[in-house]
UniProtKB/TrEMBL annotation:
Protein name: tRNA (guanine-N(7)-)-methyltransferase
PROSITE patterns referenced in this protein's UniProt entry, alphabetically: SAM_MT_TRMB
Pathway: tRNA modification; N(7)-methylguanine-tRNA biosynthesis
Record PANTHER family: 3-DEOXY-D-MANNO-OCTULOSONIC-ACID TRANSFERASE/TRNA GUANINE-N 7 - -METHYLTRANSFERASE (PTHR23417), PENTACOTRIPEPTIDE-REPEAT REGION OF PRORP DOMAIN-CONTAINING PROTEIN (PTHR23417:SF14)
Enzyme class: transferase
Residue numbers binding S-adenosyl-L-methionine: 59, 84, 111, 133
Keyword Glycoprotein: no
GO cellular component terms, A-Z: tRNA methyltransferase complex
Length: 228
């Protein structure tokens, strides 16, 4: 079990009670979709999926699942690992995966550091962290997931030449992430123009958190770091 440290998961996992249907799906379907970290990870992550996939992508904290599910639908040859500790969000994803018969999705409902430590070295082709909890109060910044230890974890599991993508609407978290990635030997930010970080990635579906930010007058920023 990974030791707890600054940057690990903080927060409330349970919200509103689930409907009987969602509760049943969580009980009956989540066990076959969830990663079993008590077993060793396969050397080739493509073996995790029912679908015949060519590469593997990780999304830490998929929230409402808008991005994760969109990518899984539009990229059936990519396997997606989605991590989300909040029960309501996980239930929504499980419903979609089951109803749509998506065979290229695996899920995990606890602390992301457990998965990052479980994955084999250089096993991921892409990783996303989109609109994470910004912990906006300065005294809580130590709780932000982006920190030297977790960047070490991302660096270990990402293949050389792959990308780590990060989005937020909170200026202090954008600056925080840029500074931490700049100071990390394994990540290189290669933006050349403002459009490189003001414009979402190709085929971007948007998320509920992005929509909320826009309603409240904040603009999203989209950072892409190369795993060197």
């Amino acid at each position: 079990m990974t030791d707890r440290y600054e940057g690990s998961f903080f927060g409330r996992r349970k919200g509103k009670p689930l409907s009987p249907r969602r509760e049943a799906l969580m009980e009956n379907e989540l066990p076959r979709l969830i990663l079993d970290l008590d077993r060793s990870a396969p050397a080739d992550l493509r073996d995790l999926f029912e679908a015949d996939v060519k590469d593997t992508c990780l999304e830490v904290g998929f929230g409402g699942g808008e991005h994760l599910l969109h990518r899984a639908r539009t990229s059936p040859e990519t396997g997606f690992i989605g991590i989300e500790p909040f029960v309501g969000s996980m239930a929504k994803a499980v419903v979609a995966v089951v109803e749509e018969g998506l065979q290229n999705v695996r899920l995990y409902d606890d602390d992301a550091v457990n998965v990052l430590d479980w994955l084999p070295r250089s096993s991921l082709d892409l990783a996303y962290q989109l609109y994470p909890d910004p912990w906006p109060k300065k005294r809580h910044w130590k709780r932000r997931f982006i920190n030297p230890q977790n960047l070490d974890r991302y660096a270990r599991v990402l293949k050389h030449g792959s990308e780590f993508r990060f989005a937020s609407d909170i200026d202090t978290y954008i600056d925080w992430t840029l500074r931490h990635c700049r100071d990390h030997h394994a990540f290189d930010w290669r933006a050349e123009t403002a459009a490189d970080w003001k414009t979402p990635w190709h085929d971007w579906p948007g998320t509920r958190y992005e929509a909320k930010a826009i309603r409240e007058g904040r603009a999203g920023r989209y950072l892409t770091f190369l795993r060197t």
